[in-house]
Amino acid sequence: MSRIKNTDGKLGLPYGTFPTGWFQLAWSDEIQSGQAVPLTRFAEELVAFRGASGELHVFDAYCPHFGAHLGYGGCVEGDEIVCPFHHWRFGPDGRVVDIPYSKRRRTANRLRAWSIVEVEGIVWVWHDALGRSPLWDPPPAKLVGRSVYPGRRLRYDDLRMHPQMMVENACDATHFKAVHRARVGPEVVTFDTQGPIFRHELAWPSGGQMRNELYGVGIAYGHWEGVFSDMGGACGWYAVTPVTDETCTFFIEEWVERRPDDPPTPPPGAQRYYDAQGTQSLPDQVIWAHMRWTPTPSLTPEEAPIFHALHKWAKQFYPTDDTERPARSSAAANAGADRAGVA
Ligand code: FES
Ligand SMILES: [Fe+2]
Known about the structure:
343 residues; Rieske Iron-sulfur Protein; 4-stranded antiparallel beta sheet; 5 helices; globular; binds FE2/S2 (inorganic) cluster
């Protein structure tokens, strides 16, 4: 079970934990078959490895024997990983399956296996400070049956921010003029919540629209229409994942839609879109790095409805002392081979 972290210090968030939910661990192709990759997420050291079957596994990194980090020199054999220090071998559920030099071939010690799902080239990982198994489904596939040009990825590491800042930013209609230099700002058209999902739509007088679906506070799916006249719509995943107590990685992957009459290569508008979007989050990042999150902001009448709804919705992602904890047996199960259903 994760320790409950105190993340309420310098960033000003009033919550004592990293948020609960699905987050982006990595892109799938960053972890190739036979590779063991060290990762830091949620201030925990992890090792991700892809076995011969192609299945991805994510474990706590430190070997229960003498504490070697399996991401540095750990060897993937079949669907098992071998510790570099004394060659203890761990199976796909994190259990010790062999101790090569001992008559004791197994031990009750095991590596915690994290719940992961791979969807359209993204690895979603479940995090809960209380060690609860996934409480809701991971974000679904979005590109099935759609025609899009090759996507474009951006990644920003070591950002001093908190995931909630990203989802608040997505709802913040009034910052588009100030921060993103929009000639005219959008208005909030609709918003609603459905369990861990928050949907909202912003619209510009010019006809442009942005529809967002927030899957917890770590992941946003955005859909744009009417950005440039010579391109179709565009969509993308925007994901912020805690790395240390104060820093996150921001993953962005976007696609421009290819309409039936569009050429096989992306029209100029698509490149202009990628260029424009490529710099859009930079001024946000400067503000996030230096701001102090304010639990009771001075909201104007225009801002109040969506931000009140968003803050109320976001509370579910932060366990408190009153949150029911998993029974010991289910916590132990979560520490083992528990895996989420595949979307
Ligand atoms: S530290 Fe891993 S086998 Fe000894
Ligand atoms: Fe922004």
